[in-house]
Amino acid sequence: MADPKGFLTTPREEWPRRPVGERVRDWDEVYVPGALLPVVSRQADRCMDCGVPFCHQACPLGNLIPEWNDLVSREDWRAAAERLHATNNFPEFTGRLCPAPCEAGCVLAINQPAVTIKNVECAIADRAWEEGFAPPAPPERLSGRTVAVIGSGPAGLAAAQQLTRAGHTVAVYERDDRIGGLMRYGIPEFKMEKRHLERRIEQMRAEGTKFRTSTTVGRDVDAAELRSRYDAVVIATGATAWRELAVPGRGLAGVHQAMEYLPLANRVCEGDLESSPLSAAGRNVVIVGGGDTGADCLGTAVREGAASVTQLDIYGRPGDERDEEADPWPTYPKLYRMSAAHEEARELRMGPAADAGEGGGGDVRVFAASTLRFSGDGEGRVCALRLIEVDAGRRAVAGTERTLPADLVLLALGFSGPDPGDGLVAQLGVELEGRGTVARDGGFGTNVRGVFAAGDAARGQSLIVWAIAEGRAVAAAVDRYLAGGVSRLPVPIGPDDRPMRV
């Protein structure tokens, strides 16, 4: 411990956000540039160097958190970067996008605010790039074996980088025109600027990984034929089959899936479009779904100039403090959280008068709300959403129906598994679980020899940190398969591991 009394004398302090009025006028990241290092230099001292660091267990990557906290407190950034990259291929991604289950498992969090582990991680990653501590690491020699990775999200990229560094020749196939999967077109620029993604892609190219964009395996390339050309195949397509909302009026114009809306806004930021054809500008927007994807839609709609925005969450409003019976430490608690997007919408008073609270400045979220139907304007376009309050069992509460104005409705209800319509599953002949995900054995292998599956395609919708852990673990499984049963690559998780819960 650099400071044995740090956790007693120093309060929790997080990376400050830019003023709302400033940040909603651009698509840059919401945080104050250059303000992170002074924060983490103090926060790293709060780590207690626990004898049993539960943050290790809460993080599926097994990040060596107390070790790099101590190194940061001593300003040994090179060593801190080495320890961080020892378990995480892309810490600048997780440091911005992960909800930090490690902080929920921090021992200090038993009775105090946790160490800002996520901020320290991000600071190390950014400093590593600035100081040149993350050079390409090409293999010393090639194995002569080839691997096709289908999908370039965090699981696919992590698997590809690990296998490339192990000496195999890896090609990543991506259906979109750019590499990155949902990190590219699903995550808004204000949450993670794509320069971070581009930097890693260039690093991987320098190491030897090959990329094939605008190629949908199952349509543009026959999956069975692809399997015959490579010694092994990794399915890492993500869970792209979105969940639907089967209510009257679903077919009205103006009702769209979140992943129809978000990619267009990202393409504007990429320079592909001057403006989004689904822009929220001047519209009354209703987002159905209370998760992170819904919040991403919210922040995007705010920047596009929506007239009003409401986010519906079928669950009741969480508490402000951990429920020790429902979510005991060190599990990840369900708490009332105010994301940057929620903060923006509240401060700008973007909720309709009926839902914005006293004075019109309240939270734009409506909790315990279920959608009954959409109404049209007589010309086939949505103009209103009818909702009803529900109890904890999702049963309708009589007399609570009301109507919200809605010119644009975005469905952010999550994803179930790989898209069954792209031909990949059928052409490879891999089996699916009942919930629609790819079935696999204890070694990440499918029923087809030499075909493996990782990430949301097999696990189901999950967090970026779990996707990276899956990518690292499946790489070890593929390496063992290619090398005759032996691999030196790390295995952070097994296919059946799940987050800590009651």
TrEMBL record:
Pathway noted in the entry: Amino-acid biosynthesis
Superkingdom of this protein's organism: Bacteria
InterPro entries reported for this sequence: 4Fe4S_Fe-S-bd, DPD_II, FAD/NAD-bd_sf, FAD/NAD-binding_dom, Glut_synth_ssu1, Glutamate_Synthase, Helical_ferredxn
Stored Pfam families: Fer4_20, Pyr_redox_2
Location of the 4Fe-4S ferredoxin-type domain: 38-69
Annotated PROSITE patterns: 4FE4S_FER_2
Matching SUPFAM superfamilies: alpha-helical ferredoxin (SSF46548), Nucleotide-binding domain (SSF51971)
Name of the molecule in the record: Glutamate synthase subunit beta
Species assigned in the record: Streptomyces edwardsiae
